[in-house]
Structure formats: structure tokens, C-alpha cells
Amino acid sequence: MLRRLGRADRWAFDRVAAARLPGLEYVLPRLSRFADHGVLWFTTAGALALSRRARLRRAALRGSVGIAVASPMVNILGKQAFRRKRPVVDLVPPIRIRWKLPTSHAFPSGHSASAAAFATGVALEAPPALAVPVAATAAGVAFARVYTGAHYPGDVLAGLGIGALAGLGTRLVWPARPPVARVTRAEGESVQVTRDGRGLVAVVNPGSGAASEAARGILPGNAEMAVGLIRRELPAAEIVQLEPDQDLEKVFEDAAERAEVLAVVGGDGTVNAGARAALKHDLPLLVVPGGTFDHFARALGVETTTDAIAAYRSGRLGRVDVAYVAPANGVRPGGASGNGASSDGGAASEERHLFLNTASFGAYTELVDRRERLERRLGKWPALAVAAVRTLRHSEPVEVVVDGRRRRVWLAFVGNCVYGARGAAPNWRERLDDGRLDIRMIFTGRRVPRVRAVAAIMAGHLHVTPGYRAWRAGGLELVSKDGGLRLARDGEVSSLPAAIRFGKHAGALAVFCPADG
């Protein structure tokens, strides 16, 4: 069987060597050389990383990780195990042989493995408009390795298979996320939209998305760039810029009173305030990403200001869940159904604190407090890294009663709808309208498993940590034994009474969604 396969492989190589493909005799050798040492793929990854789209950045990272896995599999294990000689290039026209004769073994093809690994990684994250050209380029590199006489077809096929498996294997430690979370289509609801944005009032938080105080005077923040595009594309829209000393809630309240559509430009904390005003005045909310993380906007499939403007002009509305936390003795009897979900008019009542993404307490709240203290001096990302190290070293468990059971909780996460990864604070969801809370906690005994927990958090596999529990529910009741609880909602920290309850308002908020979402 091996001899037959070898003869078929050499016959196929001879047929490719004898082929005449006008034009490609100049293109394919250059393409093959550009792929040497992964230069083609790492250049592509760098271009994607410079984009402002999270999906493209994830595609670049996943493709690069795929190459990092496939390359040693081929060059260290595969080639040394099989030690196949390179083809004899007598039949290959000299014009195609523009490469230096490799000294390594032929089987499997390293170029093909890298190409397939990168293309597979990109296909798992990027839209077809990018994934298809990358896959076509990878196929071109693979064919070029045979066309230029560097490999037999069997070498290339084996390399492609190894590369594809390496790319798919990245999902074992880093699950691929859906590009857009599904929402309930707002059937029968209409909203008046105009080409010039008349009737739209956009509240902008200029402080969102800037790396540091020093950078704000040099580089424009995400919110500033968004405002420029809105003014150009929607000139009739009213833009309200938040001042540092202004009351966020009052600004949104005033804007909502005169708006037909309320837009918010800022990070998740600012979007949270906008959602509260939109709920109170029964307005559709247009979310424009202008912060650092923009978890809610990206869940909707709105990654840029251009996406937001296109969603507004499409007039496509969806209904998403809104989670809340309220004093346990302040929840009105009719405020929640038996499973904790409701869509009553009390969605924006004063005693309820809303969140669109997550609420956390324990070590995460301490991390946010420390980051905010350091952020002005260090910038957001360095401050986050320093705060994480200090928090994980010094944080202590919180004594709480969870649904009637006394617990010592080191880290707690409550998500609005079910999240898709198994880490402590995953950042993607398949749906924004499932009516459930995603609850994850680390319960501890006398000692906190810090080293193992930190490693699990960094790897995104918190479920291997001792004391980790995760469940889904429509509601959750907590009572703090210390007389109060510090809670972070959508990245903003606040103090709450000792007894609180989490619940859901199912489909309460109308939001603009991309037409292709």
C-alpha cells in the first residue's frame, strides 16, 4: 500500500511539474517565498491586530497560536520521524525554482501546515469576507510548494491536515465565540429613523476609551473618534458631551425627555446608565462603542461606530434581557415572577440597580477598586495588571448566605444571560434573551487556593479550582454577614445593603441591532 501511495504521489508531482499555468509561474514562486518562516501569516496577523475590530484581533491571535502549535509538530516530530527526501526537480522549469534548496526533510510540509493552521484559526473567528481570501491564499501557498518542486503532493496534504487540526485544537483551551449574540426580534415595533439622525440624542462620555490622562492630550479617545463620525454621518443628531463634574443620571434623564432615539457613546458603565434612562422613558437604545472593553456593544455585533450608524439606519430593533440587583426587602410582590424574570413597568424603579453584562463581588470588586486608584498614574492596562497581582495576593473571602446556605465566597460572578466560556468572568454570550442568570462562585474553607485559582483564571478554566460552583437560575438571594456588600456592576462599584436579590426583566430593553445580526 505504501509503495502504491508513493508511486501515485510521484506521478502527481510529475503532472504538476509538467503543467503550464501562464501568469502563475511568476506569482506562485514569490508567494511561496513570502510564506517562508511564516512571514506572510505574521504580517497578515499584524495587519488584523491593528484593526479596531475585536473579531479580527481574535482571528489574528488564534491563527498565530495555531502556527505556534503546528510548526513544532511538523518540524520537530514529523520530519524527524519520516525523513523523506525532497523531490528531484529535473522536470520543474527553472523559472519556477526561485527558492533556496531546503536541507530539511520533505514530509510533512511545514509551509502547508502553517498556512492551514492560520487559515483555520481565522475561519473560527473572522467573517467570511476575510476567512475566504485567507483560505484561498493558504491553498495557493500549499499548491506552490508542489508547483515549485519543494514537496510531493503527499507532503502538502499531510501538512494541511496537521495544520487544520492544530487550528481546531485551539478551541480546547480557548473556545471560539459566536460573532453576535442572538436577541428576540421586536416584531410589530417600529421606530422612526432618518438619514440625517433627526430625533436622535447621543450622550457621549469623552473619558471612555482613553489609555491614560497623559494620552488624552495627544491621541483621541474612542469616544472622540465616534463623535466625529456621528457628526459627519448624522448631522441633525443632537450630541451631549458629559462634563467631568456632571451627574450622569441627570444628563441621561434630560436627554431622554426630548429624544425619539437615545444613543450612548461610551464604555459599559455609561451604557448601563443609558439603558436605565431608555427603560424609564420607553425609548430604543442605540449603543455606540466608545470604551475599552465594550462587552455589551460587541455582544450585539456592534464593534465600530460605523456598525452602530448602520444599525440605526436599518431600523432593526431587538429585545434584550436586563438583570437587576435590589434590596431583598425592597422587591415589590409583583416585581418578579416565580422564576425571577419579569418585564413589568418597574424595570427602571429607583431601588433596582441594573446591569447588562455582569455583577461581581469578592476579589473582583477589590480588583476594580485598586485599578481605579492606580489608573490615573499608570494607565488602564498597567493599572489592571498591578491591581490583579495585589488583589490575588491579599484578598480575603466574603461571608455570605447564598440562597439560605452560609458560604465563604472568594470570587463571585453573576451574568446577565448564560455566558459561553468556563472562566471566572467570560466575555461572550450566545443569547441576550434567555431569561436566566449565569452564577459562578469559588467557595473556600480556611485557606484560599490562590496559586491554583490564579492559574485557572489565567487559563480560562476556573472549573478546575477547588470550591468552584456554577449554576443557572432566574434569581439569587444573598445576605452579607458583615452588614453590607460591595458590588461591581458592568465595571462600576457601588455599596449595597446586607440583604440583596438578583433577578431578571426579560426582554425589557429595545436596542438597535445590525441588519445582518
From TrEMBL:
Upper classification of the organism: Bacteria, Bacillati, Actinomycetota, Actinomycetes, Streptosporangiales
Chief localization: membrane
Stored Pfam families: DAGK_cat, PAP2, YegS_C
Entry's localization field: Cell membrane
SUPFAM superfamilies according to UniProt: Acid phosphatase/Vanadium-dependent haloperoxidase, NAD kinase/diacylglycerol kinase-like
Bilayer disposition of the protein: Multi-pass membrane protein
DAGKc domain: residues covered: 195-329
Name of the protein described by the UniProt record: Phosphatase PAP2 family protein
Superkingdom, taxonomy of origin: Bacteria
InterPro entries xrefs: ATP-NAD_kinase_N, Diacylglycerol_kinase_cat_dom, NAD/diacylglycerol_kinase_sf, PAP2/HPO, PAP2/HPO_sf, YegS/DAGK_C
PANTHER family reported for this sequence: DECAPRENYLPHOSPHORYL-5-PHOSPHORIBOSE PHOSPHATASE RV3807C-RELATED (PTHR14969:SF62), SPHINGOSINE-1-PHOSPHATE PHOSPHOHYDROLASE (PTHR14969)
GO cellular component, one term: plasma membrane
Keyword field: Cell membrane, Hydrolase, Membrane, Transmembrane, Transmembrane helix
GO molecular function, one term: hydrolase activity
PROSITE patterns for this protein: DAGK
UniProt keyword annotation of Transferase present: no
Gene3D superfamilies: 2.60.200.40, Phosphatidic acid phosphatase type 2/haloperoxidase, Probable inorganic polyphosphate/atp-NAD kinase, domain 1
